[in-house]
């Protein structure tokens, strides 16, 4: 929700006057593309919730297939563009920067959620690490196509996002065992500290 507002504002700030940045058009298109479907889905869900719980349609599999199709078509559109002009060295640098950014975000969220005066549980920390740092192509690509509509180097702009999405999946799968063992050990330690101490007999 913040990105819908912040993205046009940043464009307006860095690119200059409103004549060069169609703020109203960008905001309205992002609102119709992102917010309206979400609101409609929440309203419809309220009326068909019982039916969904009875039938249990395979929305998880459908969602994964749609996401895979979006990733595939976006990769095809990006690298089929003859104007992309991206050499191998630049691609390697971009991959390194994206992985560094992702690791930095995860580390900072871990420090934030585990500070001394934090009220977050270990499970909360795990959720914060993964949810707050992960971004999806399903939102990023429509935002790019709306904000940079007609721009000839749109494919080049989408490359970092195309790398960020697989990077978060790869890093997440690699870090799951480590984070899980930390969470389990942390939960056990918290249980031991909360147990009442037995009275000492004199």
UniProtKB/TrEMBL annotation:
This is NTCP7 protein. Residues 1-20 form the signal peptide. The chain crosses the membrane at residues 30-48, 60-80, 92-113, 125-148, 154-176. GO terms for cellular component: plasma membrane. Keywords: Membrane, Signal, Transmembrane, Transmembrane helix. PANTHER family: SODIUM_BILE ACID COTRANSPORTER 7, SOLUTE CARRIER FAMILY 10 MEMBER 7. Belongs to the bile acid:sodium symporter (BASS) (TC 2.A.28) family. The keyword Transmembrane helix applies. The keyword Isomerase does not apply. The lineage of its organism: Eukaryota, Metazoa, Chordata, Craniata, Vertebrata.
């Amino acid at each position: 929700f913040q990105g819908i507002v912040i993205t046009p504002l940043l464009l307006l700030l860095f690119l200059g006057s409103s004549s060069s940045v169609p703020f109203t058009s960008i905001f309205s298109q992002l609102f119709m593309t992102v917010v309206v479907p979400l609101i409609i889905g929440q309203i419809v869900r309220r009326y068909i919730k019982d039916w969904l719980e009875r039938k249990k349609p395979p929305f998880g599999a459908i969602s994964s297939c749609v996401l895979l199709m979006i990733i595939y078509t976006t990769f095809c559109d990006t690298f089929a563009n003859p104007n992309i002009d991206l050499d191998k060295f630049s691609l390697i640098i971009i991959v390194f920067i994206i992985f560094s950014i992702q690791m930095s975000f995860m580390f900072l969220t871990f420090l934030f959620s585990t500070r001394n005066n934090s009220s977050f549980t270990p499970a909360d920390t795990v959720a914060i690490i993964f949810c707050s740092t992960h971004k999806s192509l399903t939102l990023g690509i429509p935002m790019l196509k709306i904000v940079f509509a007609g721009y000839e180097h749109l494919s080049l702009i989408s490359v970092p996002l195309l790398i960020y999405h697989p990077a978060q999946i790869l890093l997440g799968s690699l870090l799951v065992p480590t984070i899980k063992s930390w969470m389990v050990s942390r939960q056990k330690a918290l249980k031991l500290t909360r147990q009442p101490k037995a009275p000492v007999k004199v």
